[in-house]
Amino acid sequence: MTAAEDDPARRYGNLVAPGLDVFDAIADQAFGSLPAAFREAIGPVAIRVEDFPDDETLAEMGIEDPFGLLGLYRGVPLTERSLTQPQAWPDMVFLYRRPLLDAWAETEGEAAGSTLYDLIRHVLIHEIGHHYGFSDEDMERIEAD
Description:
The protein is mostly helical. It contains seven helices and three strands, in the order H-H-H-E-H-E-E-H-H-H. It has a three-stranded mixed beta sheet. Helix 2 (20-32) crosses helix 6 and helix 6 (116-132) crosses helix 7. The longest helix is centred in the last third of the chain and has 17 residues, at 116-132.
């Protein structure tokens, strides 16, 4: 079974937008599909699914439209960590359900094989890539695996 065929959103049906619980399942499945070395090296990064970014996050990023942000990495990238300054908060990746659904609805018909799973996996790789300080080229290689 391919990842697209095992897409939890497809299993639960596309007639109703998947809720937060289904998004959690998709995110878990997408994270599990990442290369093992990548997953193991990440360490403790929490993945949270929320409907929208909060107002503070939008203001901080200079984004007016809450549909303009699909995901966000919050934490100190590995490339900027210091042993002398412990982290105050755990690293987190936020996935924003409603903007992701909107982006998926706009692109599914355009790209053959494009699924909600594919989009969530893409955003996860991109946001976790920020954790590592990866370039866009590095993230493209991981996505191709």
